[in-house]
Write a structure and sequence with these properties.
alpha/beta; 451 residues; 6-stranded mixed β-sheet
Length: 451
């Protein structure tokens, strides 16, 4: 890693530990900063804080005294999840003390080029696509950010022979100063995280930080079909590379005569992509453009587009058994996410849905139930509500089960060759599972029993 002197002898407050805060504090100590760690968990229960104290950090745990924000403080490095309304963060900003996230530290020490991926949806799939496409290339890819390890940890291992493929949230991008990826991707912009950012404009501005320091020697790959994205990237200085599923792009990535085409070169017919849905075609185009610029071969890009099974729990292909194809979309914890999944398929769908009852309506599903779904199997707290929604859509095959295990069995019994059996719950998992990942893994294990 590059041993930057930027933080040497600087007084830095690391606010909030968890994975990213702990990694940032350790790195800052190695860079010879004077580190103060502040975390809510009391010191006697806080193993991370204890280890940092042993390494030489000053540790303040159990409370957040405003006296930590002093005139001699040079930087605050905060956990991305801590809002800017936090009293310590607000006080730092009032004193014009830079408030950073650990991705800024990663940039300053990283010897490798960085590919940064952001957007409201599709970040994880696109990031993983790029990572897989670059395997075996001249520069070995390393996965970092919201997916994989903390960016400043991975950056310490990176050399000029690597490329850092980094998923970036709006929370992380608000806390950058000089961070500059060689290639940035802006996939789409829809209303999200307004409770954190306050307004849609603030959210969009945070996303735009990904290219604010780029120059004409860098690239921004952007969604030309998204008006908000197209308008935002006009503020940047990087070379613009558009992608589109709707129009032809001679200097970018698009669908041309039914083929995924990147920089004028045909890769493969759309129907040969392994992941279904227009949103995944868009993700694939964006990833292919980035991977091409970073040195991946056409053959490797083509191979990944044809074989990639998806990120776990995000419209993940599970198996094909007796002509039925199973998909795990446990990440769909709300109605819009389930609508996106339903839109991805042309085949008849047997839908498994249900989970925690948040008191919300499922009526927005009705038009998609009518067009796409032949059978609904509901389970969990929301089972009866989903039954009523399915009946409003005039679906004849509707079943209500107590558990996901029983729902999977019922879905199989009510399916036939050529059907899609889709777990896309439209609900949080917390009535029966600790996480959506646990729910998805249970589904995958139940599917395996049929093979």
């Amino acid at each position: 890693m590059k041993m930057t002197a930027k933080y040497k002898n600087k007084k830095v407050l690391v606010l909030g530990l968890a994975k990213s805060g702990t990694a940032a504090a350790k790195l800052l100590l190695e860079l010879e900063a004077n580190v103060i760690v502040n975390d809510q968990k009391p010191l006697e229960e806080n193993i991370a804080a204890q280890s940092l104290q042993d390494l030489g950090a000053e540790v303040v745990c159990g409370s957040h005294p405003l006296t930590l924000i002093s005139d001699d403080l040079d930087y605050v490095v905060k956990n991305p999840g801590i809002p800017y309304t936090n009293p310590l963060v607000s006080a730092a900003m009032e004193k014009a003390i830079p408030v950073l996230t650990e991705v800024e530290l990663a940039y300053h020490i990283c010897e490798a080029d960085i590919i940064g991926i952001t957007g409201s949806n599709g970040k994880t799939t696109t990031t993983t696509y790029i990572y897989e496409m670059l395997k075996g290339s001249e520069k070995d890819p390393l996965l970092a950010g919201n997916i994989g390890e903390v960016a400043c940890e991975v950056a310490q291992k990176a050399t000029e022979k690597n490329v850092l493929v980094t998923e970036l949230s709006s929370f992380q991008l608000m806390g950058i100063d000089e961070f500059k990826p060689k290639i940035s991707l802006l996939l789409n912009l829809v209303e999200a995280h307004i409770d954190y950012h306050g307004t849609m404009d603030a959210y969009v501005h945070a996303k735009g930080n990904i290219f604010k320091n780029q120059t004409s020697n860098d690239y921004i790959i952007y969604n030309a079909d998204d008006k908000k994205v197209s308008k935002l990237v006009e503020l940047g200085q990087a070379t613009l590379i558009p992608f589109s599923t709707k129009g032809e792009m001679k200097h970018g990535a698009c669908i041309e005569n039914g083929y995924l085409t990147v920089f004028g070169k045909r890769l493969l017919p759309v129907e040969e992509m392994s992941l279904p849905g227009e949103h995944n075609v868009a993700n694939g185009l964006a990833a292919a453009a980035a991977a091409h610029l970073a040195g991946a071969s056409e053959e490797k890009i083509r191979q990944v587009l044809k074989s990639f099974s998806g990120v776990a729990h995000r419209l993940q292909y599970v198996d094909k058994i007796n002509g039925r194809t199973f998909y795990n979309n446990s990440k769909a914890t709300n109605v819009p996410a389930t609508i996106t999944a339903l839109k991805a398929f042309e085949q008849p769908i047997v839908l498994i849905a249900g989970g925690l009852d948040r008191g919300l309506s499922f009526d927005d599903l009705i038009p998609y139930f009518k067009k796409k779904v032949k059978c609904v199997v509901s389970y969990g707290e929301t089972a009866q509500k989903l039954v009523e929604t399915a009946k409003k859509a005039n679906i004849e095959l509707v079943h209500c089960e107590k558990t996901l295990e029983n729902a999977v069995k019922k879905a199989y019994v009510n399916s036939e060759e050529g059907d899609i059996i889709l777990l896309s719950p439209a609900c949080a998992s917390w009535d029966q599972y600790r996480t959506f990942e646990e729910r998805g893994e249970h589904f995958v294990n139940e599917v395996k029993k049929f093979s």
